[in-house]
Amino acid sequence: MGLYAPECFKMTKKYGLNMLVTTDPEIKNHMREILKQVEAWLMACKVEKLILAIKSKETMTVLERWQFDIQNTKDHHSTSGASLNNHSNKENMGLPSRDGNNLSTAGSSTGSGQQPKQEKTEKEIQSEIQAILRQITASVTFLPMLDEKCTWTILCQTEKDAEVPATWSDADPHLVHNAEQVKLRSFSTNLHKIDALVAYRLNDDL
Amino acid sequence: MQPSLFARLSPPTHRSSVAALDQENDIPYSRVRSRIIEPEEYEQTRKKLKDAQYELSSTKNELEHKIIIMEQAAREAEMLKKKLMSRVDSLESDRRFLYTQEKTLNTKYQALEDSSRDSKAELNEIIRTLREENMDVKERFTKLREESRATESELSLKVRTLSASLTHQQQALAETKDTSQSQSSLAAEKHRQLAEALDRIIELEDQNRQLRIHEQGLEDVARVEKELKNQVAYIKQLEGTNRQLTADCKHYKEMYRNVEVLKEEKTALEQKLKMLDDLRVKCGMLEVQKDILAQEKKQWTAFLERSDTTDFNSPYDLAKAVASLRSEKVALLEARGEFEATLKYRDRQIEELEQQVDTLQKAVLDQEEFCKKQASIARQHAKTKELALRQVESLKQQLKSYDTEETQLMGGSYDNQKNFRIEQLENLVQEYHEKLEGVLNSTTHQFDDSLASSGSLQLLQSMQNDTSASISELNRGRQALFEAKQRLEQEIEILRRENTSLDAKVLELELATGTGAFNPVTSRILEIKDSPASRHQAVRQHMLDSLKEENTALLKAVADLQQQQQQYGAFLQTHDSGDREVAIRDEGLIPAASYNRLKGEHRQLLEDMAENTKRSKRLKESWTLKADEFLDAVRSLLGYKVNFLDNGRVELISVYSAEEDQSFVFTSGLHDEGTMQLVGTGSQKFMEDHKETFDHWVNQLGSIPAFLSRVTLNLVEKEARQDTEQQPVFHRRHIQDEDYTQNSDMMMDV
């Protein structure tokens, strides 16, 4: 049940935490390929969101949807006016802005944008990543049990004008129906701000 | 008595005047009696009085409250003033400090400027001396160049003459060589002739000897002698020629030596020429360098703008010094700019604070004035209140006296008479009021006549006006505040509604975003084609397709079969063969699609099997790793290496054993219940060594772990003894190196 058996993982220390890392070379290669392309998009500032969707093999319904909003803070700080325009445009379209999922976040970000930005040290970034990883690890306490065979996929929400290689194609957004969602911690580097969120399908009998 | 009663009935302030007026007008008591105030009017008056009293008390309270607030505000303002004064003092001290700092910095800056000026002058001096030196160098350089040119021309002339003489000498040498060759050939000829002549002389002498021997004729001898003389003369001539030729040869040899010297001189001159060429190249380079230096000098002169005196050793030092001075100057300017900016900012702050202090002082003064005014008003009100109280008291006294009078004078209709009396009194009061107004009106025109009474009236009026004005003002303010409050409440309500609607919208959008909504106009969702989910999807799709295909094929087969059955039915009906069995062909019953689907399933099952194999392999690997880890832990903690043998036995080898065969073999007890029994050892000697121990711990006490521990201790002690004997110094280290983790407790025993 679930995705992979426990013996497919080994304990590895990363970001100061003991984490289970896969030993399957196929998965490793697959992840490497994905991350290579994501890196290219990130360098071109084209990535908006990274999504990990866990689906039932039997019914193909999306059970969990881990969403990581990527916000290019460097670009935002340098062209705050442009981003404000963008923000207002998105508001007009009735969509959440890229600056955050709600207006208060956007307001705070624009407010803090006027202040001189302090560069984060690697230690601070690592500690933030540690915190979010701890939260992700602890999320087993509230997420429903995956009591059926599951599969997974990684989606990348990019801007419309992003260059797409032949190995990638447009996909379904993998919406979660009857969803409950939990907002996780954020972390930020000197270039990006990542907001994490997990949406999971509530059991029908609940 | 009656006039005194009227006097008591009249209000305290203007009642006296009214009484005076009564006295003046001489109103009789009967008339007064006729005007006795009605009880309702009296009640109204009392009520009015109570209202007035209440208003007065409330006004007083309000005023007291206001005074307290004002006093508090004044105290706060005073505190603020003090704070601001202290802030101003601190800012003043800061300003003074900054001023002193600025002064010191200015002095420093001045000193630096002076030093920079001095250094600039020194640099100018250095530049001047350098320029002079440069001029000297230039002159020397021109001299050297001229000298080199002269030397060069002289040397070239010399070279030319030498080359000419060399060619001449070479020609002479060639001629001499020719002549010497001809002379040598001639000398060789002469030598040959001489040798022939000598041969001939020898021959002639032989002949002469023979002639002498044979004594031939005198003629022959004379002829021979003559010929001999000729030959001797010829030989002498030849010898002279030979000597001359030898002398010539010597001379030519000397000349040849001179040619060699000339050749050497020529090579030396060529070398010199080469050197001169090098010198010329160097001269060119020096000229270029000189031009560069001159350009640099020009630049420096242009830069320093003044003519040029320095005493630096090199331009590099000069440039370094100038650069350091520049950087210092820039740093100082920056510091100065920063200080100036800070000073300006502080000055601005001080000005603002001073302005604030001024405004606050003004506000305090205004408040103080207002407080004073309020206090005076309050005092006036207090006085008015006192008067009103007195009036009330007098009225009470009047009422009391009236009551007593009534009770004494009128026995029966007390209440009616009293009421009637009150009415009369109230009417009287009203009348007096009207009279008072009339008098007030008249007194306005007669200021000079009734100054005292009009003054008191004016005071009363003004008090009343002030009070009413303040009350109306307060009411207006209250009304305005109430309206503003209502307005603000409405606005707050509207904003709250907007906020709730926006919150709901935000929540909705957040939910939509969380579940995966996105704007397809600006964004797109991408997925790698070869993901696990897409692979699974493809497999399922393939399976579905194959099933569909199979289904259609089966449906077709069923239709064919039905058709065949119908044909057979028709055939049976026509041919009437009731017992004949219908033979349906097996061919084509199972369609190819089913076969393909089964093949696909088979492939899938094989893949699943491979996956399972991989998984079991992984499990085995992880189990092996864990087992190794467990065995290592057992080895390091208990001191025994555990080997599980193929026959189900367990072999224990102590880590302190000297040899591999020193082991214990255990086997499981009956029914494999986990109890172990010692069945043998790797070496007989080893068992004999520990037989006593085995008997004691296993046979007597029945504890295999205790036996194993004892054996471990024995082995450790033995090893320690050996080590002590062999290497007492490195004893402990050796044991630690062997296994640091496992024997710390044992080392304690040792």
How would you summarize what this structure contains?
The complex is a heterodimer of chains A (206) and B (750). Chain A is of the alpha+beta class and 206 residues long. Chain A contains 5 helices and 8 strands; from the N terminus they run ββαββααααββββ.
Describe this structure in words.
The complex is a heterodimer of chains A (206) and B (750). Chain A has 206 residues and is α+β, with helices and mostly antiparallel strands. Chain A has a single domain, classed as HORMA domain (Cell Cycle, Spindle Assembly Checkpoint Protein, Chain A, 2-Layer Sandwich), CATH 3.30.900.10. Chain A is built from five helices and eight strands. In chain A, the strands form two sheets. A five-stranded antiparallel β-sheet of chain A has the order 5-3-4-8-7. In chain A, a hairpin with a 2-residue loop joins strand 1 and strand 2. The longest helix of chain A has 19 residues, at 25-43. Chain A is globular. With 750 residues, chain B is mostly helical. Chain B contains 15 helices and five strands. In chain B, strands 2-3-4-5 form a four-stranded antiparallel β-sheet. Chain B starts with a helix and ends with a helix. Mean pLDDT of chain B is 78; it is low at 1-34 and 731-750. The interface between A and B is large, with 55 and 34 residues. Strand 6 (168-170) of chain A pairs antiparallel with strand 1 of chain B, so a sheet runs across the interface. Chain B: This is Spindle assembly checkpoint component MAD1. Chain B: Belongs to the MAD1 family. Chain B: It is found in: Nucleus. Chain B: Its main location: nucleus. Chain B: Residues 42-94, 120-147, 187-282, 343-442, 471-512 form a coiled coil. Chain A: It comes from Dissophora globulifera.
